[in-house]
Queue: 3 jobs
Job 1
Amino acid sequence: MSAPPSILVNRDGAVGVIELARPDKFNCLSLEVHGAIAAALDEFEAPGSGIRAALIRAQGKHFCTGADLDEVKKLRSSPADIEHFIRYGHSVLQRLEASELPVVAACQGLALAGGSELMMACDVIFASSDFRIGDQHAQYGLVPGWGGSQRLPRIVGVRRALDLLYSARWIDAPTALAWGLVNYVVEPGKLAEASMAYCVQLASRSRPGLAAMKRLARQGLDRPLPEGLVFEQDLISRELLNDDVTEGLAAFETRRPPVFRS
């Protein structure tokens, strides 16, 4: 009998859904899981797919508690294999950030270590009120391997980030919301509905328009402000000529909802 899939990929209208499906292992991340996420993004972004937003969610009690340590133990016997494990995980999370689609995460229970790194690579985060996030690497002599040391300080500031990394403590949903780690906190029973409703709303927007916004925010973040403003001017000068802008302006003039085709 073959093993069950590590993730499930489906769609709800124009929303592509990636569902972590290893609840028995708290949805830990392996090479297989990362490969499946990358393949799903390829599918969602393919011309003619009709997908306009992506949602990452998880089965079971917890969103994701980190890397698959059984796999890590096996790979440590080969420096080349462990380097591939780290670099491939990095490439997939960078792929989420670079995707032309808005990527939303719905997180329940725990997001720890690699799970928090996966979450931080997404664009908008919904969390259940029972959600907790932390990084336990220091507790076991480890260090973040999939961008946690870089994304966390950029989101919450260096002092808060180092406190979380040094102490290995968990913070709750209200604190994560106050620190900007998540965007919305909802009751556990409403997490699936609220995150999907948000994705459906995004899917009604102009796909190239949202892609341009994401590109400007992501790629402009580490540029000096004057350079970022030039980046915005150059990109918007091109975007204002696309068909969705024509439709949007026509809808505004006739006081109707726009229907974007791109």
Job 2
Amino acid sequence: MADTDTGAPPKPLLIAAACLAVLLAAGVAVFGLTRGADPVTPAADGPLPLVPIPAFQSGSPDCAKLIGALPHELTSSGNTLVRRKLAEPAPEASVGWGTGEPVVLRCGLGKPPELNPTSQLRTINKVQWLQVQGEGTATWFVVDRPVYTALTVPDTAGTGPLQTVSDVIAANLPAVPLRF
């Protein structure tokens, strides 16, 4: 069915093919819009990426002892937060729990700049903490142990993680005088 002059297919056949292509593209678009998105595994199920921060004592025996004693799960506002694998390269002496906004512990940090003789400290289960409020989170620094440790919790978390971590710290690291 070629045009006798040029060898090209007849015009009606070209028009029909173009119309079919347009209809096919429109059908795919409508199907994609009406079908909805497939549920995607949230990134929170994979390894937890943590930004490296200076932690000069993260390789200390105190941090190794603390990290080894931390539980596999924490309870926060009635929810169980499971310990997560950290994405490589993982900062040394760091642990994360939960999906979405995780609870993160880092051991071996430098003295928090907010710590001074007039800082308001809270004692939780025999451990002294300095709270530093962030945007949507609070970071609690352990200030009375041989190594500074930070526990960052989302504002939606209850007090469970702080209490559990306080118990582990009190049982594994001796109290020391505050260092300003």
Job 3
Amino acid sequence: MTPFRLATATLADTPRLVRLVNSAYRGDSSRQGWTTEAHLLDGQRIDEEGIREMLAVPAAAMLLCLGPNEELLGSFYAHPTGSKVYLGMLAVDPTGQAQGVGKFLITAAEEYGRQHGCTVSKMTVISVRPELIAFYERQGYHQTGETEPFPTDPRYGIPKQPLTLLVLEKPLT
């Protein structure tokens, strides 16, 4: 039996989602975990407006992993479009990483995609993150050979070097 509970974010969760995501990806707090991007990007990962925009997308959901005391342990965005569900912005509290939260959220997001008729799960990962790519490959994802440009909007961070996103996919059958 898992100690985690799955929930779907509402607008009321916006402030704590911003805190969680930014602490997982940027700044000194992110360096406590292995998923930090602080060495690659300056600035924030997301702001309240960005979270509200994500929550407003039809059929999309920000899935939450809550602990025994309802504390927010992690989150993952799932956006079904046609036969694919796009997964993005997996964030796990840096002090609680390597305890199964990420795997719990990946499984939940893939199931969310299946419930919406998706047969493929898709995500993008910064190409210079071999440890993260390896993690997703262990979860059944494979590199498609496709790339996407890194977003240029400073609301999502300011690259310290040129960055490219690799496209990873996994069949959901």
